[in-house]
Amino acid sequence: MTIGQNIKRLRRLSDITQEQLAEYLGISSRAISQWECEKTAPDISMLPLLADIFKVSTDELLGVDINKRDEKIRKVINTADEHMCNGDFQSAVSLLREGLKSHPSSTALMQALADAIINNYSRRGITDYTEVYSLCEKILAEAVGSEPRNKALCSLALAYSYANDKVNMTKTADKLPSFRDIRENFLMWQNRGTAAISQNQKYCHSLLVELAQLMSIIAASRQDNGELVYTPDEQLRIHEQIVALIELLFPDGDYQILSQEAEIAAAQIAQVYLHRGDLDRFFYWFDKSCNFTVSMDSCRPDEAHTSPLLRGFADGGYIKENGKSRCQETYDGIQSDHELDSVRADPRFVAIVDKLKQYMKL
What is the number of H-type helices and E-type strands within the chain? Predict the structure, then answer.
């Protein structure tokens, strides 16, 4: 449907005459007649006012099939996400840039592109995030509602962080709501029924990932003078608690994304015991770390948890760095880690590495 046909349809639905519409717009009724007969079209500056009069979006006014448009945008974003999960960030960026040319007003595409650029540049050591700044500022100027604005603020703050601009990073982060003020934290007390289950599980999953990462950050904390806050034994205990917590909450072994946090913690523990010469404990934690690695690769993006806490919830997969599986990444790291040279001939080491190699062939 053309814009002239839409104006005629919406005017009649609103029970407005051509004369009344012309009076609202400050033009002649003849101009309205010419629009509706498709002899001329309204100036672009008239579109926001017409949309406001008819209480519709400018897309609907222009005859854009919103459902079809949104479906096209979703497909572009989903395909870009697939590229990202496979570590192909450049393809994701290119695809989203092309998508934005076709749908220049889509804040969803702007956000997806900003995130893809951050993922791409941060891994390549690029510190010029001018395009990200522009995208996020445009979202903040045009987006309606707090959620898209907060997402844009997060991306903007992250870009400033990677650009080593601590002042703007802090200023931007200060505009975000505190933990107590976020939507999920409020709704977990209010929601009831089936829909609330998946919403609360998603929130719980996010909190668990953040908690595991925060515990790891706290373990490595340093004072202003550079002195470590925790002793090596205390750090060891915190990393053990990370693994124990994840194993406790997922008795079925369906760790999925949290496998990575457990893998990192177990690897840290194994390294400590290797340095101390305690090979029995080293191999115990080294094997546990590799088992978590296999766990990451064994779950599908659409595979749901089976353990009670998050039963039915799917994490959605993880990003494959450089297009490699987690087992391949871990194997490559082991091969290049000279600290492991002293134990490579040990049958226990060979057996653990063979397990990774075996899974890489699947």
Answer: 18, 0
Read off the tokens for 109. 């595409």
Alpha-carbon distance of 214 to 228, in angstroms, equals 16
* Nearest-angstrom CA–CA distance, 313 and 311: 6
What is the DSSP code (8-state) at residue 174?
A: T
The position carrying tokens 């987690």 is 326
For residue range 223-270, list pLDDT tens digits in order.
999 999 999 999 999 999 999 999 999 999 999 999 999 999 999 999
Phi, psi of 320 (to 5 degrees): -90, 110
175 three-state secondary structure: coil
DSSP letters spanning 140-172: HHH--SHHHHHHHHHHHHHHHHHTT-HHHHHHH
How many residues appear in the chain?
A: 362
Enclosing H/E stretch for 267: helix 258-276
CA-closest candidate to residue 134, choices 100, 170, 166: 100
Q: Are 331 and 359 in contact (CB under 8 A)?
A: no
